[in-house]
Amino acid sequence: MPRNSPLPVDPIAEAKRQWVAHGWTDAAAGMSAVTSIIRAQQLMFARIDAILRPFGLSFARFEMLRLLAFTRQGRMPMASAIARLQVHPTSVTNTVDRLVKDGLVLREPHPVDGRAAVLVLTDEGRELVERATEVLNAEVFEQPGLSADDTAELVRIIARFRKDAGDFTDPRPVPEPL
């Protein structure tokens, strides 16, 4: 959470100093990296939450609405949404339940798989996510708190980390048209 005034010392740097002092030198840099990323996430989420709160949205609800709004017809099988959002199915179900309750998404039976559902963005949901996206873009994504070069480098570093962790693979080359 953002503070009214900065701390007089960086707690992560102090933790690193303590790690070294306790003989965990080989782990000190990694501990600093991990806790720095976690703290950066907290700071970013605080900004995002402050922007989305007036819209009655959490970031999870925003992501689901935005995902549906990106589709051609504002609809997607629930299983596809779960795979794309990369979160636990129960979390997606809970998010969808709240969006349905608020009239922002409909849950329809899958046309082929009787056990599955298709999520459908309502007009109200589309209008809300478009307004929220405009503000989120202007106040957070266009100004993430880093220079353009630092932003690009950070994305490259984290993408390398994610790929090495098995989060995604490079897409196969598309064949040349005949």
How does this structure look, described?
By secondary structure, the chain is mostly helical. It has two domains: 8-55; 57-143, Arc Repressor Mutant, subunit A, CATH 1.10.10.10. Helices cover 61% and strands 7% of the residues. The chain is built from seven helices and three strands, in the order αααβααββαα. Strands 1-3-2 form a three-stranded antiparallel sheet. α1 packs antiparallel against α2, α2 packs across α6 and α3 (59-70) crosses α6 (123-141). The longest helix has 28 residues, at 25-52. The N and C termini lie far apart (55 Å).
Helical run tally: 7
> What fraction of residues sit in β-strands?
5-15%
Strand count, sense and barrel status of the largest sheet are: 3 strands, antiparallel
Going across the major beta sheet, what is the strand order?
1-3-2
Question: How many separate structural domains?
Answer: 2
Shape: globular
CATH topology descriptor of the largest domain: Arc Repressor Mutant, subunit A
The CATH top-level class label of the largest domain: Mainly Alpha
Structural class: mainly alpha
SSE string: HHHEHHEEHH
Q: How many extended strands?
A: 3
Q: What's the CATH architecture of the largest domain?
A: Orthogonal Bundle
Rg from alpha-carbon coordinates: 20 Å
Query: How far apart are the first and last residues' alpha carbons, in Å?
Result: 55 Å
CATH superfamily of the largest domain: Winged helix-like DNA-binding domain superfamily/Winged helix DNA-binding domain
Question: Uncertain regions: pLDDT < 50 for 5+ in a row?
Answer: none
The proportion of residues forming helix, as a percent range, comes to 55-70%
Average pLDDT, rounded to a whole number, is: 93
